Amino acid sequence: MADDVMRLLWGPHPQPKRGPKPALTLDGIARAGVTIADAEGLSALSMQRLAEQLGKTKMSLYRYVPGRAELVALMVETAIAAAPEPAAGDWRARLTGWSRALAGVFARHPWLLDATVGPRLMGPNELSWMEHALAALDGTGLTGAERLDAVVLLTSHVRGIALQSRATGAEGPEAQLMAALGEVMRKHGDGYPSLLSAMASAAEPLAQDQALAFGLERILDGLEALITRRAG
Amino acid sequence: MADDVMRLLWGPHPQPKRGPKPALTLDGIARAGVTIADAEGLSALSMQRLAEQLGKTKMSLYRYVPGRAELVALMVETAIAAAPEPAAGDWRARLTGWSRALAGVFARHPWLLDATVGPRLMGPNELSWMEHALAALDGTGLTGAERLDAVVLLTSHVRGIALQSRATGAEGPEAQLMAALGEVMRKHGDGYPSLLSAMASAAEPLAQDQALAFGLERILDGLEALITRRAG
DNA sequence: CAATAACTGCGTCCGGCGGACACTGTTTCT
DNA sequence: AGAAACAGTGTCCGCCGGACGCAGTTATTG
């Protein structure tokens, strides 16, 4: 499994010399999978469903991909794509742009939240995101472990916002959940006074952009404090 | 569905007057499910498997739980349990203890990472964790939205650490993944200079406690800066 | 006491899933 | 002209979540 994923994501992809030309490509398969997952979620992506989309039978897919897990790994690489060019400015501006870009990826492909839990092997594109974030911290005086920890921290924050953004999305049955939470608070709010007070004084639409920016600034403030302490 | 979850998590649980005594209890079912998920992961938990553990047939479980999703919701509530009593000290000490306790929960029940993606209705225990964290921030001068954002930020960090802790766990096939990542860096490290440099200068075992503490201190530093700025 | 209503647990069946395997047809090498 | 390598397909298996109806049990009602 780990071997298969590694060959799929990192190559080489030996193209056969004899036999019929393959009608599909790895990239085409991954793109079709991303399309389905974007529209209907990761659970709607079955081999059968994907094969129908591609006009083939489901077993033909196994000529390209060893199994579903490897397919998803390929889709992740396709969906996140390569990290964008770093923004101009200091490390703080660069990490801000990086975080917002990552949040955009999660917004466009919410199923990435499901696909990237659990231990897995990262592909070139996913690694390029890490690389860009780490590069922004070069020369700040942080140790290697600290730079890694800082990037993980940023990533977790963006993930968390994406998670709650998906939960509070006004579309679909999620709205019922929010209504249910409201009902819970109306009935049992006495047991949670701080929560009740915080929710009451929070704006209604609970803007996700605000939440992303808030956490981002706290993290960057914390990092800046450490960096200047080290330098000074 | 949302209705079912709400009745399961928040009650009331009307106990029938006529008919045979139920051989099982919701709590017992949830505990058995937690045991299985702890030992073999959430994917190993099927209705069949759970019924075998309880010495019943699988269909009998549907007398207690409407479906698998509701069962998992119940298991989440059981596994996280109620939030521990807040530590003594200021908001910073309290949030530190809270975060470490939450990290402990994720360490004991790694499947919670899988079970708590996606929109869902929180139960009393899960809400009690939010309540405790928010209560620690009472009187800090932060707005309600800011307090909520801060708690989400902390939760995301703990989640992220738990996620990477599970990935780099020395046990099982995850070790192969780390070995594979090392092989990738050996082959393609040239394309990721900052990553290579950070990993080279990081200690080998990449201590998770260090990562948890690092992010925690950055977040709390960032919050403290905001709080003192508001107060001053 | 008997009848009945409510309830638990079980057996059967269904559609869908990921995947193993053997087979046919196609292409390019020796 | 083989023969080897390869693509796509059809069939089959075990497992999953879940719908449904049935048999046995218990407390209420007449």
TrEMBL record, chains A, B:
GO terms for biological process: negative regulation of DNA-templated transcription. Residues 46-65 bind DNA. Residues 23-83 form the HTH tetR-type domain. GO terms for molecular function: DNA-binding transcription factor activity; transcription cis-regulatory region binding. Coiled coil: none annotated. InterPro entries: Homeodomain-like_sf (IPR009057), HTH-type_TetR-like_transc_reg (IPR050109), HTH_TetR (IPR001647), Repressor_TetR_C (IPR004111), Tet_transcr_reg_TetR-rel_C_sf (IPR036271). Signal peptide: none annotated. Keywords: DNA-binding, Transcription, Transcription regulation. Pfam families: TetR_C_1. PROSITE patterns: HTH_TETR_2. PANTHER family: HTH-TYPE TRANSCRIPTIONAL REGULATOR RUTR (PTHR30055), TRANSCRIPTIONAL REGULATORY PROTEIN (PTHR30055:SF151). This is TetR family transcriptional regulator. It comes from Streptomyces cinnamoneus (Streptoverticillium cinnamoneum).
